[in-house]
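#dry-run=false #mode=assembly
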Amino acid sequence: MISRNVTIINRLGLHARAATRLVNCASDFVSEIIVKKGARAVNGKSIMGVLTLAAATGTDLTIEADGVDEQQALDAVVILISNRFGENE
Amino acid sequence: MSLTLKGHAVAPGIAIGRVHLAERNELDIVEYRIGQEDVENEIQRYRNAVDAAREQLVELTAGIDPSVAVPAVEIIQSHILMLGDSMIGESTEEHIREELNNAEWALQSQLEKVLSEFRSMDDEYIRTRGEDVTQVVRLIQSKLSDEAASKPFDNFPDRLADTLVIAVELTPGELAILHERGVAGIVTEHGGPQSHTAILASSLSIPAVLGVHNARSLLKEDSMIILDGGLGVIYADPDAATLERYRGVQQEAERIRQSLESLRDLSATSFDGEQVSLQANAELSGELQQSIDYGAVGIGLYRTEFLYLRGAPPDEDAQLEEYRSAIDMLNGKNLTIRTLDLGADKSSDALDFSQLRRSANPALGLRAIRLCLRDTGLFKTQLRAILRASAAGPVRCLIPMITNVQEIQRVHELLAEAKKELDERNQRYDQDLQLGGMIEVPAAALALDQLGRYLDFISVGTNDLLQYALAADRGDEQLADLYDLQHPGVVFLLKHILKEADKLGIPVAICGEVAGDHRYTRLLLALGLREFSMHPARLLEVKQVVRNTHVAEAREAIKHWLDDPVLQAEISLLQLLDRAQTSY
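#status=ok
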């Protein structure tokens, strides 16, 4: 298992569109992806789980990946978040 | 008798027409027990219903024209994900197995659990997403109740022009269907400003008022109503004077829309004969289509980040396929492909990205070409894909965030290597592929006399150039007044870029937000810019200003302003230019 910390920096935070992109990205990999906000941990492949984190902009998250492609999975998810989910603002 | 109703103003616009009441699809969810031997069948019945629901939503997204409704597609995609979400699916199946309940009831109990979780959230936006979960669950339940369930609005007329639909609530999917049938406006009893119905109505430009209590009992089928989406007001059975007033407002809006439409095929030529090239920024096929529809002469900025944000980085062939499909759509118009403009460490453990972000401003970090030059394998894959695409149509290659000469030289080396690799594979490409640089770093702008020698064209990325030049984060609302193109220092930078590029004989385009903001068009023309690239939806507004601008006069008007701080305090540059040109 590997993990990394990342901050939500897009203006709207983990709203529906961003969560959709996150879940789609995580689901591309076989590794298990866990998204943690403080003590709360949710399945990174569950849109409802990710939404209920209510991660606004500025929120610090920890992403954990566990599985055969954990490195690629973690890279992909962190890149997505740190690039504002591809949003322009 | 006339009646006025109020609700949430979520999507502006005036709609006048007849009421059509949507029936409420009440599903009766009954509880019954199943035998142990029926468990697997019941689970299969549940899975079939989910598949049928998914099929309906996928079919729906395929039918939506993304050029008009990207948000619609994205919202429906989030619903598709919810359908397969473990918080619903796995738990429902578990419930069936353990409690021996029918699928409808198991799903209903699960919905209530999930909803209580959503309702306990502090964030109103997240609380509202509970509505989406409910809509998704209702869809599955409707599929369970009747395997061959009819599609929504099967009993509605095919054309809904001059019709306003009044419903208890509308799912994004239902709204997309109503939009396709040309619905004039919508009213719902439930739903607030944060609901997806609101977001969607606004993005589809459907005048809408949501959260009108008892709308379906207060408004009578086939009665005449006026909906003012901007005010969130509905006038039922309006008197003649109100009706006439609103017809006037509606006609005026239509007149403005048509006068913009009529600009579509006209050239972007200023009042005094300057030719201007209006291009579009795009990434998705929907935006490409919109660009063509609004008369863009090319794509001045084709972003490629989306290819890298889907999951694993795309290989050369997958990229090539994307670029070729864009080239096919553009049918001979120019495509300027910008290489990857992401920021993050690819080498994962070598640098912890979160620490990088905290210790430094990410906008000033390892991103764009800086990152690509660290990971040359990734970068060369993209260069090869762009080169191969250039054999299929007019393509240019644009490098983001160029800072110094060494970077451009390195790009040239890598481009030469990529060409050699293609030669070895006997693959075709444009030998003279043009290489451009995005000027976003102020020091690069100031040293353009040196950098420009290695570039075939440049594109000024004003979003970052302004943020760096003014030391003001453009996302920080507290600094909004500082983040201003009219700052004499920024105007100086732009003038300097244009002067140096002119000396070198290389063309300059502008592709930041201001390029598509018609308030700045006159200023940019006066400074000497002739190539603009913007969001496709802005093309017609900007073209209108171009055609109404006397460039030489605008140039004269700003000359004095720049040297005169007293005048600067008196009037903004934009006001000055508008005042000088009101006659055109």
